[in-house]
Fold each of these.
Amino acid sequence: DGGITQSPKYLFRKEGQNVTLSCEQNLNHDAMYWYRQDPGQGLRLIYYSQIVNDFQKGDIAEGYSVSREKKESFPLTVTSAQKNPTAFYLCASSTDRRQPQHFGDGTRLSIL
Amino acid sequence: GESVGLHLPTLSVQEGDNSIINCAYSNSASDYFIWYKQESGKGPQFIIDIRSNMDKRQGQRVTVLLNKTVKHLSLQIAATQPGDSAVYFCAENDYKLSFGAGTTVTVRA
């Protein structure tokens, strides 16, 4: 089945530590996105990539970094500079920016 | 600034009744909207979309209405079922999705 796989489902970060969230898609989509969701709120865009080897900052990119070396993969690193990282992180992909985005089932990040 | 928002944070519906979820947007240039359903602990799931050259679109048990004059769209769910209990988001789609906080729909048996 085609889809988006996020791993791990739950992740814990220690103070001062960087952690990387994985996102893989086998939908052959060019565009990929990372969102953050806080309790009772909508999604906010962290980074997006419209094509391999290119990515752009979203609304809340500070404290995060990404790479897009392969079409199917778009990992997100939450750095120690992100002072409030506890949230539900969602990855999405689409054929292009004007088509519906398809989401993975998220990674819940917590601070130890 | 641009925003997409929902009118009510919660909606309680009797099983078998129709549900109507409302959404307002502020950018008059917006031309593409999507409704998503999110169940607890999962990612949003695409329900239906509509472009600004239409004012109504129907899917399986769902209908989306777009009123560009008042910048309002709604999602109607026919014969609501327990499996429809979830958070519903409307989103404006350009290079990113702009979401409101969502409406939590609870279906009463």
Amino acid sequence: LAKTTQPISMDSYEGQEVNITCSHNNIATNDYITWYQQFPSQGPRFIIQGYKTKVTNEVASLFIPADRKSSTLSLPRVSLSDTAVYYCLVGDINDYKLSFGAGTTVTVRA
Amino acid sequence: DTGVSQNPRHKITKRGQNVTFRCDPISEHNRLYWYRQTLGQGPEFLTYFQNEAQLEKSRLLSDRFSAERPKGSFSTLEIQRTEQGDSAMYLCASSLSSSYNSPLHFGNGTRLTVT
């Protein structure tokens, strides 16, 4: 299982872009990169998934450089409701023991 | 898609009692997972089912823990002789095995408090 490293916390203000970088130096060829968001007293919620280059959906963008040893989750124009813990996971479809780590606590202030 | 449902949402029990949690996955999902989450930590893997077969159990799952998924539908997680260290949020997730990397869909968990 590829180990990931991400910042413990990040602070931002409403309307700003938040970029969270996750390091995964030991990523394997078959591994995908998946990000989840978790609010207090709720289960994690899937945000975005990618394999290489850039992926964008209605919520976020995911940037993956050519060497795939890191990835950056970009949250455009955050609001107070984006305050949550964000987890970066790396693994393939057979990785049923995905490791969440401690995640990054993002706090958005008015 | 009604999402993953977990019951109860909260459970308070006295040390030594047995508790059972239920998880109803998304209907077409054949994979089901149980995780445990303590305050300030990310979810930790406990066990995994592919249809009705339990394929993996974490070392975190002591002999007091048992999980079942009869007929590959809902799942139950039972904890016998609960201890205060069992206090945590127990999360269930499901996914669909396919040729692409299907993400996990989580329920909102059962919060267990052992007094």
